[in-house]
Specification:
single chain; alpha/beta; binds adenosine-5'-diphosphate; 5-stranded parallel β-sheet; globular; binds iron/sulfur cluster
């Protein structure tokens, strides 16, 4: 289909510094965990976005020197020639598709743990890090020689970036990095010409930019990523008090070729990577839209906002908010988003659901993965392309039982590969447990996970979807006539309080009773008796907090109880923790952490504190527990109890089929596999990955078991770069 002309504006070129983009799609710097250490993964991941039409593709934060080391979080690095070689591969991949490659130069000052390098970071004032308050991290106060040395580090890194082939260097003036540490009143306590007035506090940032312009600016674009409001109150950067004034100051110096603007600092990263539970598309607009009027027509502005709709993008451009559409997550969920708009295939866009699982992977010091796009991060190590599927050499017929995330994904990929697929579910709609999830408070955008697959399945003539069928039995599966069977029957919430804390049921917590409910029962409309409700959360992600909010909104008095150190503990990885806490506080919910349930009787939930036992031990004695115990209990008035304790696989159908293995041949069944939560209940991204992987590897000798993937690590006996004690170029004050 031809592109709708109203989207033509998205495909116009934009000039900045010595460079010109081929369209208005800008893949903002974003973390991956691939860094410079996994050059193949990095290059293919970023290259895929260039192939999909993103005109500019940037790295994640890229450390300029060992003084700025956030190990075990993996950044890109430009410390030495080895990093140049590894990142050059990324630049080559990006250039192969006519896009520009950008690198974000990052020096983190007082927030650098330096756990790998063991160096001492420098900063404006020698203060403890508020990002890692428990780790005893301080910066050393930089005198003017130090400041010149750090600026030289930026210059050397930019020169390495040029050697690697990058087209632009973006100074990270965001996420509380060193330029912001000089700029913000809370960090900058200096009394010299780098402290005090805004102009003085801005001096370091501007000098860095000016030095880069001098060193590489005629060949590379010199840009910055800046937060116009840290959303963190006075003494920090606020939009109107200093955010915009700083833009005026820097712009007047003529040292910045392009501004990528955002909000939220390191602590409030969740306001930049706003999750869909709290922030809707283009939520930053009021905070960033004034920048364009300051920098004028010749200096482009990039604005982010989880843009997945081309109409929203066009509206932002036409309103003068920005010149380029910045995107991290939408480009992860769909590297081919620009191409799909360009080809008039908007309905094929795999829209980001705003779950922040991608962020959570980095925050767990792991590798980026995506809920919507199971191929992200697998482009190199498994050779997966998000839009290309190897046709099956000998397509057979496949029955997929269960149309939840795993079953839908598996059926879709098998269908794209040419198999004849029947996807069957007893429910009358697609989506499995995710249909409930998408109806939780704030979770409506999660429904895109279903709608994307629904649209794709509809387009596949070789895939039939049978909904509302009677629950399939082992007999029916064997007699169905399919060559191969995939079981994707999912999981259900435990109905007896079984959870990770005790690994056993809780006395009285039986969801057959009127006063005890599982999330499925709540969503199915089982009445919640009384006023006082406790939600027992042993899951730690969004279900517990969603149940609590749902019931609070119905006027219940809610207590959220968890065995974990924090409520919604996993949300510390998705950056939703602060707003979860604010929401719970705002809605007057009570929170109890480090507690678990001993027993439940209508009217009373008995709890115990996890650390109620003594710190001391008894002498070792046969038959006696070594720790001096306590049986202290706390009673909570509670009319109804919602159990978000653990999930239990619906594994019976697979087990029955396996037990009848001897009959498979008679029925013409060649194989039976299981995927998703019926195999082991995990987060949705894993169920989708499971279904996708099985379908990709359907002809492997043992499809139930993944094929090996490429592991990027040093192989013993090969040279290291740099060699020990090689000093490299001197960092002299400039
Ligand atoms: P996953 O996350 O692994 O995809 P879900 O729990 O979301 O799993 O989905 C499982 C789906 O399987 C549900 O929609 C459920 O209705 C369906 N299902 C479970 N058992 C059967 C069965 N025996 N026959 C048909 N559908 C089934
Ligand atoms: Fe979007 Fe979630 Fe994928 Fe991240 S993991 S890109 S938030 S869908």
């Amino acid at each position: 289909m031809a592109r709708d002309p109203k989207y033509d504006i998205l495909f116009e070129q934009v000039a900045f510094g010595p460079k010109t983009t081929r369209n208005r799609f800008w893949q903002t710097s974003h973390c991956t965990g691939y860094g410079s250490d996994r050059p193949g993964t990095q290059a293919r991941f970023r290259g895929m976005k260039a192939e999909g039409g993103w005109a500019v593709v940037c790295t994640e934060f890229c450390s300029i020197h060992p003084e700025s080391d956030e190990y075990p979080w993996h950044s890109a690095r430009l410390w030495d020639e080895g990093d140049v070689v590894n990142l050059r591969h990324m630049c080559d991949e990006v250039h192969r598709h006519r896009s520009l490659a950008g690198v974000q130069l990052w020096y983190n000052g007082m927030h650098s743990p330096c756990l790998e390098s063991r160096e001492v970071p420098r900063g404006p004032s020698g203060l403890p890090s508020n990002v890692f308050p428990e780790r005893c991290i301080y910066d050393a106060v930089a005198d003017e020689d130090d400041i010149r040395a750090i600026i030289q580090m930026y210059v050397l890194a930019a020169q390495r970036a040029e050697q690697a082939g990058f087209d632009l260097v973006e100074v990270s003036g965001s996420d509380s990095t060193l330029p912001m540490q000089f700029l913000e009143r809370r960090y900058n306590r200096r009394t010299d010409r780098y402290g005090g007035s805004l102009a003085n506090r801005a001096r370091f940032y501007i000098e860095v930019m000016a030095a880069l312009k001098r060193a590489v600016g005629d060949r590379l674009a010199v840009t910055t990523r800046f937060e116009t409001d840290t959303i963190n109150g006075e003494h920090r950067i606020q939009h109107f008090d200093e955010g915009l004034h700083f833009v005026e100051l820097m712009h007047a110096e003529g040292v910045c070729d392009l501004w990528a603007v955002k909000i939220g600092d390191y602590e409030e990263w969740g306001e930049d990577a706003g999750s869909s539970r709290f922030r809707k598309a283009n939520w930053m607009r009021p905070f960033v839209s004034h920048v364009k009027s300051i920098v004028g027509a010749n200096v482009p502005v990039v604005s982010n906002g989880r843009f997945t709709s081309p109409d929203d993008m066009v509206a932002a451009l036409r309103a003068g908010q920005c010149d380029l559409i910045g995107a991290a997550r939408p480009s992860i969920a769909d590297p081919f988003l620009p191409t799909k708009i360009s080809e008039g295939r908007v309905e094929d866009i795999r829209e980001c659901i705003g779950c922040n699982i991608c962020v959570s992977r980095m925050q767990q010091q792991a590798l980026l993965s995506c809920t919507q796009n199971p191929t992200s991060g697998e482009e190199y190590r498994r050779g997966w392309h998000p839009e290309q599927f190897e046709p099956a050499a000998d397509p057979c017929s496949v029955l997929v039982v269960g149309a939840g995330p795993a079953g839908m994904e598996c059926a879709m990929v098998l269908g794209k590969r040419g198999y004849t697929v029947h996807l069957r579910d007893q429910a009358s709609e697609l989506g499995g447990h995710w249909r409930d999830v998408a109806r939780y408070p704030r979770c409506a955008e999660y429904g895109r996970l279903i709608s994307y697959r629904q649209i794709q399945l509809k387009k596949l003539r070789n895939v039939e979807v049978h909904l509302g069928v009677p629950a399939m039995t082992a007999d029916e599966v064997l007699q169905y006539g399919a060559d191969k069977v995939v079981i994707a029957t999912g999981a259900h919430w435990a109905t007896d309080g079984l959870g990770a804390e005790l690994h056993r049921p809780i006395a009285g917590a039986d969801a057959a009773r009127a006063e005890v409910l599982t999330p499925e029962q709540v969503m199915a409309g089982k009445p919640v008796p009384g006023e006082k409700v406790a939600v027992l959360d042993g899951d730690g992600y969004f279900t517990g907090v969603s149940m609590a909010e749902l019931l609070a909104d119905q006027g219940k008095s809610v207590t959220l109880v968890t065995n974990m150190n924090m409520i919604t503990e996993f949300a510390k990885y998705t950056m939703e923790m602060p707003n979860n806490k604010r929401m719970l506080h705002e809605k007057g919910m009570r929170i109890l952490t480090n507690h678990w349930a001993h027993s439940f009787d209508p009217g009373r939930l008995r709890l115990f504190y996890l650390y109620r036992d003594s710190a001391g031990l008894y002498e070792v004695e046969p038959g006696r527990w070594g720790r001096r115990g306590s049986d202290e209990l706390i009673d909570l008035e509670c009319d109804a109890l919602v159990l978000v304790t653990s999930r239990v696989p619906n594994g019976a159908l697979y087990a029955q089929l396996k037990a009848r293995h001897a009959e498979w041949q008679r029925h013409g069944v060649l194989a039976v596999y299981r995927i998703g939560d019926c195999h082991a209940p995990r987060q949705a991204l894993n169920a989708i990955f499971d279904g996708h992987r099985l379908a990709r590897e359907f002809e492997s000798p043992h499809p139930q078991h993944p094929l090996p993937f490429i592991r990027e690590r040093q192989i013993w006996g090969h040279a290291t770069v740099p060699q020990r004690c090689n000093p490299g170029p001197a960092i002299e004050p400039v």
